[in-house]
């Protein structure tokens, strides 16, 4: 699976600004964290050139970007509405998909996991946002994540204190939606499934009590081999 991560704004476009923070800078801080968190899974991750604005390149300047080489595109932004110095409640996280997106399991998993870390879950919304619309027009599932509100002090308190955990929440949400297993878990799962050529014999051995049926592709010791042969009645009486 190949994933493209895009940090919103950039170049001469700072995006929203509040409390001395710029949206473009926050997005460029968070995207590499998501990339690193996705390293737990068997995926290839690319990051759109952080020195540039994908919107200006692709939409304003008409660059014909090839999204077809990816399975999923996630554009990362930080929301803003009006400055809130803090009232003890977060304004929250939300994610946008195109009106053409058929399923939203990935996006629901992302915001649910992020909300578990303290951000209000504002849900999945359908919007005609330019870059993800262009990706979807090429047949690629895409979403735009508004991590939290940078002009809400409560939101930023959660973000600053838990940014790495939030990045893992995004990665784990993608994995949940696409049913991806972590690399180590993937190996263990393979070991728990017998090869096709051995399946019938393995099942008969389980039924006869020769083996416990666990980890068919694990190696075994000589004493384990002798025990299984004994259970199979190879030594007679």
Which SSEs are present, and which pair or pack?
Elements: E1 2-7, E2 17-18, E3 21-22, H1 23-37, E4 44-47, H2 54-60, E5 72-79, E6 93-97, H3 105-115, E7 121-126, H4 130-137, E8 141-149, H5 153-178, H6 183-191, H7 199-207, H8 222-231
Parallel strand pairs: 1-4, 1-5, 5-8, 6-7
Antiparallel strand pairs: 2-3, 6-8
Helix pairs in contact: 1-5, 3-5
Q: How is this structure best described in words?
A:
With 237 residues, the chain is of the alpha/beta class. It folds into two domains: 2-178, 3-Layer(aba) Sandwich (Aminopeptidase); 192-231, no CATH class. The protein has eight helices and eight strands. It has helices spanning 23-37, 54-60, 105-115, 130-137, 153-178, 183-191, 199-207, 222-231, and strands at residues 2-7, 17-18, 21-22, 44-47, 72-79, 93-97, 121-126, 141-149. The longest helix is centred in the last third of the chain and has 26 residues, at 153-178.
């Amino acid at each position: 699976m190949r994933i493209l991560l895009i940090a919103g704004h950039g170049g001469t476009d700072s995006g929203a600004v509040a409390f001395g923070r710029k949206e473009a800078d926050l997005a460029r801080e968070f995207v590499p964290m998501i990339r690193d968190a996705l390293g737990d899974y068997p995926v290839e991750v690319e990051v759109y050139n952080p020195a540039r604005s994908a919107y200006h390149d692709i939409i304003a300047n008409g660059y014909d970007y090839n999204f077809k080489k990816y399975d999923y595109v996630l554009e990362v932004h930080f929301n803003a509405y009006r400055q809130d110095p803090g009232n003890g409640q977060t304004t929250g996280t939300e994610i946008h998909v195109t009106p053409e997106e058929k399923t939203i399991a990935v996006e629901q998993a992302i915001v649910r996991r992020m909300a578990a870390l303290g951000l209000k879950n504002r849900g999945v919304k359908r919007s005609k946002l330019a870059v993800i619309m262009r990706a979807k027009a090429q047949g690629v599932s895409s979403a735009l994540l508004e991590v939290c509100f940078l002009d809400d002090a409560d939101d930023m308190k959660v973000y600053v204190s838990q940014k790495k955990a939030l990045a893992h929440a995004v990665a784990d949400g993608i994995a949940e939606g696409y049913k991806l297993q972590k690399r180590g878990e993937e190996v263990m799962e393979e070991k728990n499934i017998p090869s096709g050529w051995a399946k019938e014999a393995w099942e008969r051995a389980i039924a006869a009590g020769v083996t416990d049926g666990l980890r068919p592709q694990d190696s075994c010791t000589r004493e384990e081999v002798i025990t299984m042969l004994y259970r199979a009645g190879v030594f007679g009486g």
